[in-house]
Hints:
- The chain is α/β, with parallel strands linked by helices.
- It folds into 2 domains: 2-47, Arc Repressor Mutant, subunit A, CATH 1.10.10; 63-324, Rossmann fold (3-Layer(aba) Sandwich), CATH 3.40.50.1360.
- Helix content is 49%, strand content 13%.
- It has helices spanning 2-19, 24-31, 35-47, 63-73, 88-106, 120-128, 150-167, 183-190, 193-200, 219-224, 230-238, 270-274, 289-297, 308-324; strands at 77-81, 112-115, 139-142, 170-172, 207-211, 213-214, 241-245, 248-251, 278-282, 303-307.
- Strands 1-10-9-5-2-3-4 form a 7-stranded parallel β-sheet, with helices on both faces. The chain has a 3-stranded antiparallel β-sheet with strand order 6-7-8.
- The radius of gyration is 25 Å and the shape is elongated.
- The model has no long low-confidence stretch (mean pLDDT 90).
Amino acid sequence: MSRLNELRMIARVAQMYHVERQRQADIAKHLRMSQATVSRMLKKAQEEEIVRTTVVAPSGTYAELEAGLRARFGLTEAIVVECSEDRDGAIMARIGEAAAHFLEATLQPEEVIGVSSWSETILRMVENIHPMKSGKAKYVVQTLGGMGNPTVQMHANQLTTRLAKLTGAEANVLSAPGVAQSREAKLVLLGDPFVRETMELFGKITLAIIGIGAVEPSGMLARSGNVFSKRELADVTEAGAVGDMSLRFFDSDGKFVKTPLDERVIGITLEELAKVDRVIALAGGQTKTNAIDGALKTGVIDLLITDKFTAQRLVDTEGQRNAAE
């Protein structure tokens, strides 16, 4: 009976604290015991499961899908957003909103932010960020050449400079095309001191925000002119590529696909990206699911922000694979 009496007392202390909202000092005074004893009893109440913690996920959130993504891909975090339809425009808007909120909540002082400017989803994120009252970031660094078709280049420049202004940072644009005409042309462009200065900051990036693309370029990237020819893309696909991050390709197993095209890209490499402390990927949609799956297997990405439809496909793919085995 002594154990039952002990548990009864523990339950009473737990009730006073958790249900009646009394302070530990008041409980100790009321029951004529020390506050240290009250604290030990509250701890014991959890160990004995007299007090159980339950987290009820709000409607429109997807804790199970997020847990599934973390477990499958070894992600630090995953954010799955509500979306009314499995359509690219709607998906980009919802992901952008969630990414803006996450960045505002987690941005660290003196952060050096790397951002790929040819991403419509990242542009949506920037459009949703509120100006930070006290500047937090140090630099915003463009990680893929930002020159291209003038009508689209305006958006790329706006993305980098606007994000810098919102975060109180200094903008470092990469004043070169994302894809040079040849290896020799790239070497000439790298000789520009402003281009070189920006690229030297790649090694100082503490937070990289990237998009994930299928081998077929996104609308914004295609309109910019920073793309490879159809023949070149066909060769990349033949080499096993399923997608890219900043025009650096990878296959379905997450292995980097190296081709001569790498020598023409002016931007951050996957090896450099892998060294960044925190890499956040914003991506979703049916056409990008295989690319996202491959990108997550590279081990480069720490956090994924995606939509519920894409998250379900990514998790279901793993279930189907296990069933087949």
